[in-house]
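Example (one chain per record):
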Amino acid sequence: MKKAAVCLAEKLFFASVLLFFFSASVLFSQNSIFTNQVPTGTGNDSDYELGMKFSTSQVAGITKIKYYKTPGENGLHTGKIWNDSGVKLLEVNFDNESSSGWQYAELNTPFMIFPGTTYIVSVNANSEYAITQNELASSISNGILSTIADNNNGVFNDTPELFPAQSFNNSNYYRDIEAVELNSIFTTELPAGEFNDGPYEMGVKFTASQAAKVRAISYYKSAGESGAHTGNLWTSTGTLIASANFTNETALGWQYAFLSTPVNIPANTVYVVSVNSNTAYAPSANEALASSVSNGILSTVADNNNGVFSGLPNTQGIFPTISYQNTNYFRDVIVEPIDVPDLPILITPADNATNVSIEPTLNWSSAIGAETYTLELATDVNFSNLVFSSSGLTVTSYSFTELLNNQNYYWRVSAENFAGTSGYSTGTFKTVQAYLPYLAFPTNNVKVYTNPIVFTWYLTSNFIGIKYDLIYSTDPGLNSPTVITNIGSLFYSISGLDKGTTYYWRIRSRTANGAVASYSSINSFITSGEAVTPIPAYPINSEIVYTYSPTLYWYLGSFGVGFTYEIEFVQGDTTNLIGIPTSNNINNFSYSVTGLDPDTKYSWQVRSKSGSTYSSWSNKVSFKTVQGATGPVKPILAWPINDAVVYSTATALHWFIETDGTGLTYELELVEGESFDLTGTPNFLNINALSKTVAELENGKRYSWSVRSTNGIVFSPWSDPGTFEVVGSVITPTIPILSYPIGGNTVYMNKVNLNWYLASSYTGLTFDIEYGTGPLTGTPTVTGITKGNYEISNLTAGSVYYWRVRSSNGLTNSDWSDTESFTTLTSGNNTVSVPLLSWPIGGATVYSTSPKLFWYLNNIGTGLTYELQYSTHSNMSSPITVPNILSKDYTLSGLSHGTIYYWRVRSYNGLIYSNYSSIEAFVTSAAFSWAVPIAAAPMGGAEISSSSPQLSWFIPTKASVSAYEIEFSKNSDMSNSSYIESSENSKVISGLEIGEKYYWRVRSKNNRGEASEYSEIENFVMPSQVTSVDSETGVPLSFNLMQNYPNPFNPATTFEFSIAEAGLYTLNVYSILGEKVATLIDSEISAGIHKINFDAGKLSSGIYIYTLSGNNLFLSKKMMLLK
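Predicted structure:
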């Protein structure tokens, strides 16, 4: 090597044309210029590009551009860096600005700036800007950054986005940067000449006094040098650590090659940086590196063997180890000092916080210089009992799960980087006490058949303000679960879970402030899903059915919900069933078929469908229709006829036929007016009973009606017409009619809604309820109820409750209703299937005094016996009871001719009885004898408007009647009674006392003087004064829900109701168990009288409740579907 002899010019950086970026990482010693300067004014004269000239005393990297925003400024902003020649070096957009104050635009990668160069930072202004005049006349410095004091700072351009070069009074517009200081070795040292031997690998040994990050390698290029260059960083023993190629070199001066990945170097460790030479190099004078050269944290190594090269020419890329008189070949590094990070500040939980969640998120501040953090959690202040310890965290928060309750915890955080650790910040907190939930249902892998599924849980104590999260998943570990949050009760319903799937769930409790308190254990359940093969219930076993429109029933041998069903129904034997459904999408356990032929065999089978899967077909079963009548028979009207007076706007029309009418159905025409107004066109079809309830009648109107029978093919002649007149309406508190629960209904919860209705308007009336498990005393339990239902709760399991209702107008009370009862389900849920009556029903006439009664079960009935009751009273008083019946039929004997009988059945499994079935009725043929009359009107305690009421009755079947004897009294036991006779089926009685209640009954006599039994006792109330009644027109003055008509019905009926005020109303239909089976209306309804038809063809026989609600209104009534 030759000794350097030429002194070159001072070290140049060519910063104006060398645009160097380095990769983003943790940066240290951030600097900006304006730290305590505050704007003194604002300007809003125009939009501008506003800027500030600045320089750096050290190599640095710009990380952010910032500007001070005044409240009146708006729009988008862009930050720029320019050189002093007006060349734009970079541009960055501002995002997510606040309304005022310093705004920041962060560079994706920091931008390198050099000493001795003037730069301009600028940001556009749109409508308003901050200004302090003359603030930049003198230089403002902070750390390595300074403004330029050239009497032309605080620059602007009238056109935004253009280079700002003008100045107004050296005004500060508060445009600034943030930068980090960088470090190199050689700053003032100069080459002494140029040599052209070689080429070589030439380098320098160096150390850093503190940890640092090597960003770039540099070398000084002499005028005669050319070719490609590669910078290398080595360990002191010759291991290559990193390399970087030089690009876009200038002809002369310092050149820079940035490492693709910066290299961290520890303090006080020797490294070698080298760059190859090709045609020339620029050395220093001899012994320039004999002594250490230092700048900032960097120093050359003074080991008398520095300024190293690779030895022989053409040895580029070889680790340089040879020194020639400690000559400096001007190879250098640019490093970023790495300071030990600042101490983190603990944020949450606050120190000494209490009632902290057992799932806390610990948060601490981002420490300057931190690359990672160490977090420790312990149960003691000395951190000897560690719960958690983790280092290398790159976030400033950490969440824990299921810490101990009511426990003091201690936590600490330290920040680390390559340079070292900050030490610990320490805090403490105490977790909340336990509020442990216990799962109640569904648990223990139980199979659940309901949808939605009601999840229930409990606490062992009552805690105020506790909320709950329900967590569930198909994963046993509850990974990625569904979470329902902030539940304020101890139950929650979920619909739509996958069928046939095992689910796992638990409950998490929270305090009122949201802190997690406790977790329950995890439990599981299975949703039902597989399609279950149904079991046919009725009609089966080739039994005879007594209608040509029977309903087919089936049940499931195991629980299942959400199924639909398909029926195959054919004429003939079971061999005709081929597995192709004739009806599908059936949503309940029954299906009605119509138009069957007499004396014909039919077969059927059923299967269930769950989603897209089917069960197997059920067993194939068959039945036979009854021979029945030889043809349609002309009916005989029973009541109301012969201008009878009816005291209600809803009344039942009755008729009979003189021969066997089995299998016949009936059609009825009802018109307002005289008999000649009848047209021969029926307005009520497919009636399966010998009566029809109509409810669209109007007070003071006269009506005519007629009936004909049909076997589905031909029709009988129309009956002789009947006429009647409707009068009077109830004007005092009316005895309510109880609708649910009645007849010993089973209630499946510890609360129930009691429902009742009136045969008149509710307007102005309130209701009192008395209920209990013992005898009722006449003292109301609850008073002042304004609607037709009331919920009672906290019922005792396995108990029989009795209840009744009365109405009040504020001055007087009605009599108490009949007492009804219901039974709460026992804790063991030991229930027995309730029988369904099949024949004779619907008031059918039987032509024997020893009729055979039939019933069936819609469920498994193995091992059951049956108890039958029958009575001549509709309320089943004084019944005859037949126990221990082994089959689902029984033949009565010794019945009276011409008498209506009521009957019911219950089942018994040897331990408990089921509830009784619904009550059905039939009439024995009178033959040539008398018949027991049925009292028709007035009845039910109705207050009449006439001082001379007309009493009406009818006989339910053909009979030999020559006269009727009417008995009436003011006493319910008929003591001190009076008697009158009539040859017609009505009688006007005069001379009764105003305001008194009267009881009456009637019996028939034949021409031999023989008398029937008396009818049931009915009653009415004489008016307190005689008034006239006008029909209402226009908008109703009150709300009313009328009795459906017909009732009983099959399969269609009509609901009528009056609305006094327009609003949103809902009309729903419920089963007797409270299950909603139909929603007919859920919409805005105008004021007025409305009617709607309801087809119950897909429902099974039984009692149903229909309700009208909305606008603080709730009305309900009971109806009966007979098929």
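Caption: The chain has a mean pLDDT of 86.
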